[in-house]
Design a protein that fits this description.
The structure is a single chain. This protein is mainly alpha-helical. The protein has a single domain, classed as Farnesyl Diphosphate Synthase (Orthogonal Bundle). The protein contains 16 helices and two strands. The protein has a two-stranded antiparallel ribbon. α3 packs antiparallel against α4 and α3 packs across α8. The protein starts with a helix and ends in a 5-residue tail after the last helix. The model has no long low-confidence stretch (mean pLDDT 93).
């Protein structure tokens, strides 16, 4: 087995070969820009790791890994437009650096490029990859729609929210792992088990993202802290605070979520205080731990060596230790 750094380095080198700025430059330059903003390369690393865990050389999974990464970044470009987000990984979002029309069109091209990469596989492998990829792509879109719908509703429940983040975030992590298994010819049982590992880890990761959106360091987090609060998003923190808060706290929280002041500083501060005093900030960390452990429990169902299970466990533990 190779190290996480080895997988990441190989993937970045492969991406540099495959992603080029060409005519029309105004279409391809934004694609290169978003793909080179950095990040952990979580999803492609998982695809490469999974392929090798199940007995294949990771190089066979590079095209699928790049398809996953391009699709993920396509979704970010369009999500940032819908959210009117100014920053992505600490840099200007594509629609801010260029314009909305460029963001839409470059994003569309990224989606098509992702599918073209899967054309490098043949036969049953190709069929299974495209089936998994397409199902996941639709679920990601469904998750984004749930997210937007929740902004207009006052009756969102925690189970609904967990379903939303499962679709919007976790299924792509899960699919990245499953696709590595498909390329390596792993059994259906193994594909399903590693998918469940990725899904639960992805949910934990998104809950952590929600927490860091309120309480993270913007230099480490890479996004504007308080962005969900400014957008009045019904995150896990908000929903749990509504559930746990005193009547006065709940009334204050509802009032604060009904306004959008020009300067949101005081709003963010007041809402964070309610998240802390109500106990919601502690409860979301407890929930993160629950889903992380569920992910690790899925490793017990994989017919692989203990060393390989430990590699997956270490990856999960490292993922959930982002700097606040």
């Amino acid at each position: 087995m190779h190290s996480i750094d080895d997988y990441r380095a190989s993937f970045i080198a492969f991406m540099a070969q495959k992603v080029a700025i060409k005519d029309p430059i105004s279409l391809y330059e934004p694609i290169s820009y978003i793909l080179n903003l950095g990040g952990k390369r979580l999803r492609p690393v998982l695809t490469l790791m999974s392929a090798e865990i199940f007995g294949s050389h990771y190089s066979k999974a590079l095209d699928a890994a790049l398809a996953i990464e391009i699709f993920h970044n396509f979704s970010l470009v369009h999500d940032d437009i819908m959210d009117a987000a100014p920053l992505r990984r600490g840099k200007l979002t594509v629609h801010e650096k260029w314009d909305i029309n460029t963001g839409i069109l470059s994003g569309d091209a990224m989606l098509i490029k992702a599918y073209q990469l899967l054309e490098n596989y043949e036969g049953e492998t190709f069929r299974q990859l495209v089936t998994s990829f397409s199902k996941t792509a639709v679920q990601v879109c469904e998750g984004q729609q749930y997210d937007m719908d929740f902004e207009k509703r006052d009756d969102v429940t925690l189970p609904e929210y967990l379903k939303m983040i499962q679709y919007k975030t976790a299924v792509l992590v899960a699919a990245a792992l499953k696709m590595g298994g498909i390329i390596a010819g792993a059994s259906i049982e193994s594909q399903n088990s590693i998918y469940e590992y990725g899904k639960n880890l992805g949910i934990a990761f998104q809950l952590q993202d929600d927490y860091l959106d309120a309480f993270g360091n913007p230099q480490n987090f890479g996004k504007r802290v308080g962005g969900d609060i400014i957008a009045n998003k019904k995150t896990y923190l908000y929903l749990k605070a509504i559930e746990l808060a005193s009547p006065d706290q709940k009334r204050a929280l509802l009032d604060l979520y009904s306004i959008q002041p020009k300067d949101p500083t005081d709003k963010i501060k007041s809402i964070k205080e309610i998240f802390l005093s109500s106990g919601a900030a502690i409860r979301i960390q407890d929930e993160m731990a629950v889903f992380t452990q569920m992910a690790f429990d899925n490793l017990g169902h994989l017919a692989i060596s203990n060393d390989k299970k430990e590699l997956l466990r270490n990856f999960g533990e490292g993922l959930m230790q982002r700097i606040v």
